[in-house]
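Progress narrative, Year 2. Work on SFRP2 protein from Xiphorhynchus elegans advanced from sequence curation to structure prediction during this period.
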Amino acid sequence: YKRSNCKPIPAPMLLCRGIEYQSMRLPNLLGHETVQEVLEQASTWIPLVQKQCHPDTRKFLCSLFAPVCIDDLDEIIQPCHSLCEEVKDRCAPVMSAFGFPWPDMLDCSRFPKDNDLCIPLASSDHILPVTREAPKVCDACKNKNEDDNDIVENLCKNDF
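Result:
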């Protein structure tokens, strides 16, 4: 049994650059034991993230390649089953179109059902989008007189 430990997320790891945490746990959820191994394997997934098949693809993959590491917690925080399923539903067809099946190592049944100790789905694309608020109209535009000039006319066309 090799006790997992925290390592800084390496700068060259483009897949997880700029995520909300700085330390990752090794070995990770995919069995990678060295930072070098993680770097090599994670880089192959960048094209899938760039396809933007799901807004949480990067979050899901980083939770596997670079799981968040909290010093006081020995347990690895896994992605929630629902996060995996949502990403798989939208990204597996994209991968398939390029001749790649959804890999067994990303089998969603291995991840916990949604609870406090897993990484949940962040996006809310199942919720109807909020309609944009109508632009505010300044008082001068509401009370236009017949003799207003072009400046006020152009000003009133702008969104404040």
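The first strand starts at residue 5 and ends at 8. The beta strands are 5-8, 23-26, 78-79, 118-119.
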